[in-house]
């Protein structure tokens, strides 16, 4: 059974892994010993960070800096992927509202965003920066059988949620209003994992 990486107490909190740990994870991915998800679970590094580092994206950005840090964008990507995996992919407006909610709760003001809400240009660049993981797809309704949720699924969700929120400051937790979720999304474009053929 493999040994899994655990964060050293008192280490830096803006990322919970060392450069050596990151390089070990990347080597296992490059040598096809682990998938991105397996490496993320084993080493505690976000999938989006592994993808960006492996493909050397945004390591030395030119021009102006992005409104959010790389770590913040990685966390946003993880949230979008998580929602998509559960059958609730975010569309353009939902991503923009998610960013606004995060900034408002963090007490930050981004001058280039109107009322802290990013515009369409920012959204387009954001998706482009993370094109290795995110892919816009036309939304589709899901079958009732696939939408059913069992007690086991619910328990697994809250167990994973408890682990995910461990050592996370309360001000960094976003409460996304579930009333925005709909079961008839129409034919709008939503963000899903790049490998997915359908937005369901």
Automatic annotation (TrEMBL):
Main location: nucleus
Pfam families recorded: HTH_psq
GO MF annotations, alphabetized: DNA binding
Organism the protein comes from: Acyrthosiphon pisum
Cited SUPFAM superfamilies: Homeodomain-like
Protein name according to UniProt: HTH psq-type domain-containing protein
HTH psq-type domain location: 18-54
Entries under InterPro entries matching the protein: Homeodomain-like_sf, HTH_Psq
């Amino acid at each position: 059974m493999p040994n899994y990486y655990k964060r050293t107490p008192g280490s830096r909190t803006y990322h919970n892994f060392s450069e050596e740990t990151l390089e070990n994870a990347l080597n296992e991915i490059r040598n096809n010993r682990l998938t991105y998800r397996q490496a993320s679970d084993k080493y505690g590094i976000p999938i989006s960070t592994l993808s960006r580092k492996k493909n050397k994206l945004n390591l030395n950005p030119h021009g102006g800096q992005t409104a959010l840090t790389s770590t913040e964008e990685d966390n946003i990507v993880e949230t979008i992927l998580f929602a998509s995996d559960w059958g609730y992919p975010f569309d353009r407006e939902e991503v923009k509202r998610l960013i606004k909610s995060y900034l408002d709760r963090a007490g930050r003001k981004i001058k280039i965003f109107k009322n802290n809400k990013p515009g369409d240009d920012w959204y387009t660049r954001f998706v482009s920066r993370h094109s290795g993981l995110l892919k816009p797809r036309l939304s589709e309704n899901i079958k009732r059988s696939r939408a059913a949720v069992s007690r086991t699924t619910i328990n697994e969700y809250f167990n994973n949620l408890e682990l995910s929120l461990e050592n996370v400051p309360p001000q960094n937790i976003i409460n996304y209003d579930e009333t925005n979720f709909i079961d008839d999304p129409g034919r709008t474009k939503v963000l899903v994992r790049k490998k997915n053929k359908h937005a369901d």
